Amino acid sequence: VNPGPLPSALEWEGGIPGTLLLLDQTLLPDEERRLRIDRVAPLIEAIQRLAVRGAPALGCAGAYGAVLAAQSLQGEPASSRLARLEESAARLAAARPTAVNLARGVERILVRARALSAAAGDPPGGWARELLDEARAFHREDEVTCRAIGRNGAALLSERPAILTHCNAGALATGGAGTALAVVYAARDSGRQVSVFANETRPLLQGARLTAWELQRAGIPVTLEVDAAAGALLASGRVDAVVVGADRIAANGDVANKIGTYPLAVLAREHGVPFYVAAPLTTIDATCPDGGAIPVEQRPPEEVLEAAGRRFAPPGVPAWNPAFDVTPARLVTALITEAGVVRAPDRAAIAALLAGRPAGGPAPLARQTPTSSG
Ligand code: MRU
After folding, report:
1. Ligand 1 pocket test target in 167, 183, 205 with most atoms within 8 Å of CB
2. 167 alpha carbon to ligand 1 midpoint, in Å?
3. What are 273-307's pLDDT values in tens digits?
4. Catalytic site positions
5. Are 161 and 365 in contact (CB under 8 A)?
């Protein structure tokens, strides 16, 4: 197999003025079409309908989105444009509530904008140009981070690992190779014969539409199953490790990720299969004491009541549609970050990680003791 390059979820075209190009993920796998976005309002709309999605990719979209706001304010007097940028930035950061990376990407540009405003006069290349450089740096950092996550995670795997994953935590979800799927790519690149089981990920099918597409394109063997098959699959002994991404990790190590992740963690524990969460440090929110403080996005009931544009539930039946769930830290075998692997993450380990003192390092994949015979 000669794998093609990984897909890129977003890129900035041109300088200032420039355009944000987003791969419209709602059309995959049928069509690869790029949206050309040059204002904040259509970007918010694209984020809310999941044309761009996945926590780190949302971070990059937030950073570039703040640049879009800044470039539209180029002609404004320096005295008022920072306040107007802050207004647009606040709307952008609130477009989706759970992935903390979105607000982080926006904030990164605001910090730079505030520093520029405090200095006398505009930089030679212009205000917005400086902010674009900052957004590009943020994007590049995410790319480097993904590679490091991949390397750190691959070191945990056996020679022929079968990985179970949920949702899409790949190139489509980041500014680089992904988080959970970066581990898969790094394992392949280090000569391992890696294969993936992908949960379809109801209701929006990120596993079926995106993960299966991305992995097939990369030449990685991928098998799709309905989310409800995960228990039977884990019980069959065919999975060596569950690897998922994260949208926000609380200070105590609780992990918010796509709805259906928590039952997967429970099942993995039941069957003695390691449950790994791969995420950049930008996904850790030290201001959230625990998972209960993580805001969970509720999405329209129609996503549950309908499929492929057809309503199949009886009229009048309501639906509950949280986009994410929270997995307690005690079910996480290890957190895989760019700064190292944290086994059995807890409040102290997360604090040490954020302080630049990650505990432990890569260790070989080992089956755990099941909670009951599986
Ligand atoms: O609703 P989505 O598709 O944005 O949800 C994405 C996820 O839950 C991913 O697993 C998470 O953002 C990690 S992406 C590297």
Report:
1. 167
2. 6
3. 999 999 999 999 999 999 999 999 999 999 999 98
4. 247
5. yes
Pairing mode, strands 195-199 and 222-225 = parallel
DSSP assigned state of 179:
S
Tokens of 209: 């539409």
Ligand 1: residues within 6 Å at CB? 50, 53-56, 99, 167, 169, 173-174, 178-179, 206, 245-247, 257-258, 323
Contact 189, 218 (CB under 8 A): no
Reported as half-sphere exposure (CB side, CA atoms, 13 A), residue 374 has a value of 22
Instruction: Name 252's Cβ contacts closer than 8 Å, sequence gap at least 6.
Output: 289, 290, 291, 329, 346, 347, 350
Summarised one tens digit per residue, pLDDT across range 52-96 is 999 999 999 999 999 999 999 988 988 899 999 999 999 999 999
Distance from C-alpha of 46 to C-alpha of 169, rounded to nearest angstrom: 19
Least Cα distance to 243 among 120, 112, 123, 334 occurs for 334
Which tokens in the block code for residue 201?
């990920």
How big is the chain, counted in residues?
374
From ligand 1's centre to the CA of 246, what distance in Å? 7
Omega into 29 within 30° of 0, i.e. cis? yes
Q: What is the atom index within ligand 1 of the atom nearest the CA of 170? A: 15
Query: Residue 58 CA: which ligand 1 atom is closest?
Result: 4
